[in-house]
């Protein structure tokens, strides 16, 4: 088939698909009939009843109205970043440079020997949240930018400044010097429902103000390695590069999420029907703090939360896997001072039932430092309520750590694995009686640790023949391991022990 006719064939297929889908929808609601009142026979032209036409019109109008309401408040954000790269003609000893002379190269390239500036352009989206120019977007849209330009729907361009960024949630706020701007209506993401129709608005592939439609595929998505604090809305509304920071809205025209990322197998970069948006309730909370203070303060319990799998639930005589197991408690931290102990199961936080560790981290963070939190725990089969005065999470802590600075990460984390203390409950559940070591909590797919065959729940007993007892021991063992060096780990899995060699690659 020639390229000339391919678009017509694709258009015909799309029209046919749309017609068949629409006919099926109408038949479902009883809107397709035969003039005699019976269902259309094979080969006959279906007739849409007045009721069906009215339903289709209302359905289409809902999308049109939502798009018209949200579109003016979604803006493209163009970023520029100046980078320094090696001059293509090398150093002052380059033969070509010596032949033509430095003046020639400076005249045509404008850079001194061995140095060249390059401007990198990128495009994202943002949502106007105030008439005087505050715009909500993603941190990764503005991170590292030397210049930000916002273009309104009337083509006016404004230089924007960064008000505040929060890399841990991938939320940022910027501002332009303007007034009487079209402001988005921010909805309540807690009311969003799986299966609900939504539209995504942004600027994918430099196609400004593109509107796509789909449904909410899931809520509360976490552990997708996009941010430290994750509670994503998943949608199949088409999201592509350039949509980041744009709006995910319901059919009433209320923004319920900030589009953030897509799943892109093999790095293809296009939409495959799996996109993620930050719930607007989370984004609003962070936005208010960034506007007020330029930073985000989060509540801090000072403990290591663990999810409960069926094995742990059975070993600890729990009725189900709901809740969050306390794997460790920071000495003299808020939880320790209040009396929370290792092995407690947190079932509620400030009246909200806790399903897993990610939810607990988000609830604690949102509660804020200095507040009194009611923590409902299960200990030895008995329920009790403990009041904890939350601290402020140190800024150098990752979301899933208890006290180790994320900037001081050991070389072990470069292998793609994380570890946790070996608790009494884990000893009993996994059969590691009277053992020492640290437990492998997770292994990143396709990482060096994964390729070496390390698995979750493996017990690491030694690093380079040195015994390991705590997470602190494990981290210290890697403090002086550099790129290209190898380490030997003694692993116990079940009743067997074996060594694994890993090499630092970054």
Instruction: Give the uncertain stretches in residue-range form.
Output: 1-30, 32-37, 400-411
Please tell me what the overall shape is.
Answer: globular
Strand ordering within the main sheet: 3-4-5-8-7-6
Strand pairing plus helix content: what structural class? alpha+beta
Number of helices: 12
Summarize the amount of helix as a percent range: 10-25%
The average pLDDT is 79
Strand content: 25-35%
**How many DSSP E strands?**
29
Main sheet makeup? 6 strands, antiparallel, barrel
Q: Descriptors for this entry?
A:
506 residues; alpha+beta; 6-stranded antiparallel beta barrel; 6-stranded antiparallel barrel; 12 helices; 23% helix
Please characterize this protein's 3D structure.
- The chain has 506 residues and is an alpha+beta fold.
- Helices cover 23% and strands 33% of the residues.
- The chain has twelve helices and 29 strands.
- The protein has a six-stranded antiparallel barrel.
- A hairpin with a 5-residue loop joins strand 6 and strand 7.
- It is globular and about 75 Å long.
- 34% of the residues are buried.
- The N terminus is likely disordered.
């Amino acid at each position: 088939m020639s390229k000339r006719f391919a678009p017509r064939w694709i258009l015909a297929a799309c029209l046919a698909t749309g017609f068949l889908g629409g006919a099926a929808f109408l038949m479902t609601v009883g809107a397709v009939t035969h003039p005699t009142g019976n269902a259309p026979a094979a080969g006959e032209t279906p007739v849409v009843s007045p009721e069906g036409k009215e339903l289709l019109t209302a359905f289409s109008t809902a999308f049109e109205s939502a798009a018209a309401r949200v579109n003016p408040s979604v803006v493209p954000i163009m970023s520029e970043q100046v980078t320094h790269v090696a001059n293509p003609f090398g150093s002052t000893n380059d033969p070509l440079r010596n032949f033509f002379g430095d003046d020639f190269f400076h005249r045509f390239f404008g850079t001194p020997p061995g140095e060249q500036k390059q401007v990198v352009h990128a495009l994202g989206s943002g949502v106007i949240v105030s008439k005087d120019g505050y715009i909500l977007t993603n941190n990764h849209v503005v991170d590292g930018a030397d210049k930000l330009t916002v273009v309104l729907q009337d083509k006016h361009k404004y230089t924007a400044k960064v008000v505040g960024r929060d890399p841990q949630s991938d939320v940022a706020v910027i501002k332009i010097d303007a007034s009487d701007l079209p402001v988005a209506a921010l909805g309540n993401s807690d009311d969003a429902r799986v299966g609900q129709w939504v539209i995504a608005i942004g600027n994918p592939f430099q196609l400004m103000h593109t509107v796509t439609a789909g449904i909410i595929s899931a809520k509360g998505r976490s552990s997708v390695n996009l941010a430290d604090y994750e509670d994503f809305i998943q949608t199949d509304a088409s999201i592509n590069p350039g949509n980041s920071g744009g709006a995910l809205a319901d059919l009433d025209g209320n923004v319920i999420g900030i589009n953030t990322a897509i799943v892109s197998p093999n790095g293809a970069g296009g939409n495959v029907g799996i996109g993620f948006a930050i719930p607007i309730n989370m984004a609003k909370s962070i936005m208010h703090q960034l506007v007020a203070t330029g930073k985000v303060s989060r509540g801090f319990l000072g403990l290591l939360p663990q999810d409960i799998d069926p094995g742990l639930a059975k070993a600890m005589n729990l009725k189900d896997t709901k809740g969050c197991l306390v794997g460790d408690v920071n000495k003299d931290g808020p939880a320790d001072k209040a009396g929370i102990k290792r092995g407690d199961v947190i079932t509620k936080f400030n009246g909200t039932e806790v399903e897993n560790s990610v939810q607990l981290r988000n609830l604690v963070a949102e509660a804020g430092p200095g507040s009194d939190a009611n923590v409902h725990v299960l200990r030895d089969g008995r329920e009790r309520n403990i009041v904890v005065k939350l601290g402020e999470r140190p800024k150098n802590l990752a979301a899933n750590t208890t006290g180790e600075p994320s900037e001081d990460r050991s070389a072990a984390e470069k292998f793609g694995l994380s570890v946790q203390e070996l608790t009494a409950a884990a000893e009993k559940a996994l059969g590691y009686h009277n053992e020492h070591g640290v437990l492998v909590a997770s292994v990143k797919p396709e990482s060096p640790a994964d390729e070496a065959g390390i698995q979750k729940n493996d017990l690491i007993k030694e690093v380079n023949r040195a015994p390991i007892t705590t997470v602190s021991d494990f981290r210290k063992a890697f403090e002086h391991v550099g790129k290209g060096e190898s380490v030997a780990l003694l692993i116990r899995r079940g009743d067997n022990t074996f060594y694994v060699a890993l090499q630092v690659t970054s």
